[in-house]
Specification:
Layout lengths: L4 H4 L1 E4 H8 L3 H9 L1 E3 L7 E3 L12 E4 H15 L4 H15 L8 H18 L3 H9 E4 L2 E4 L1 H7 L2 E3 L5 E5 L8 E3 L9 E2 L6 H9 L4 H8 L3 H14 L1
Antiparallel strand pairs: 1-4, 2-3, 5-6, 7-8, 8-9, 9-10
Length: 235
């Protein structure tokens, strides 16, 4: 298993990771902590954690690899597939590819759709098989992820070792905002200008206009507008 900072250094709290990926904190908490659900007259239903966490201070427990795993899970969620129905297929991917952190691996993107399709064919008409089919389409004779999943997965950059090294965050729309564990401690920054998003927002709140922000930080005006729009809508 890799031992670099992407795997070994906690960078985010659960709520911070959820906010960066634009998913509810309760959803990311389920991914990170697992769940136990009880219904009257039925056996308890449990789900194991699926996102990597580490011991950390002040609630900071999610390393970059955990954020990358959460990004892949957000793609599955965006396609409308319940996680509990896709868990068997994810377990299969991990076994078949022999990779523990498969959701943060380039192998998911290169081989995952084919393996999910094969899983669905073997399982037949079970709920799990139908869920796997919802993630995969056949184009030109090839099994590939559907448009929703593909739009998420294309936002990940991989290092030469095959593991995720940078994520272009979806929540900021057309603005190119990235998280990179080697830059600004994994805090979201503008890809062009390399300034933290929170720094620009603070300057805007303090009265700096768009022209001033562009001149001071080197961030394209369109990127600024997209980020400020997202920030305003979330406020």
């Amino acid at each position: 298993m890799p031992t670099d900072e992407r795997f070994s250094v906690p960078l985010y709290s659960v709520s911070e990771a959820a906010r960066h990926l634009d998913v509810p904190s309760s959803t990311f908490r389920t991914w990170a902590r697992g769940y136990l659900r009880r219904s009257e007259g039925r056996r308890p239903v449990t789900g194991e954690p699926i996102v990597t966490t580490l011991p950390g201070d002040a609630g900071v427990c999610v390393p970059f690899v955990g954020l990358a795993e959460g990004h892949a899970l957000a793609a599955i969620r965006g396609a409308g597939v319940p996680l509990q129905r896709i868990r068997p297929a994810l377990d299969l991917l991990q076994r078949e590819l022999g990779i523990e952190h498969v959701l943060a691996s380039r192998s998911l993107y290169t081989d995952g759709a084919e393996l999910l399709f094969d899983f669905a064919e073997r399982e037949g008409d079970t709920p799990e098989a139908r869920s796997a089919r919802d993630l995969v389409v056949v184009r030109n004779g090839q099994r590939v992820f559907n448009d929703v999943v593909d739009s998420y997965l294309r936002r990940v950059e991989f290092a030469d070792d095959g593991w995720a090294q940078r994520i272009h965050l979806r929540k900021y729309g057309d603005a190119d905002v990235v998280v990179d564990p080697q830059r600004s401690f994994g805090i979201p920054i503008f890809a062009r200008g390399a300034v933290r998003v929170e720094t620009v927002i603070a300057a805007f709140k303090s009265g700096t206009d768009l022209d001033g922000l562009t001149a001071e930080y080197g961030v394209p005006r369109d990127d600024l507008l997209s980020v400020l729009r997202v920030h305003t809508e979330a406020a």
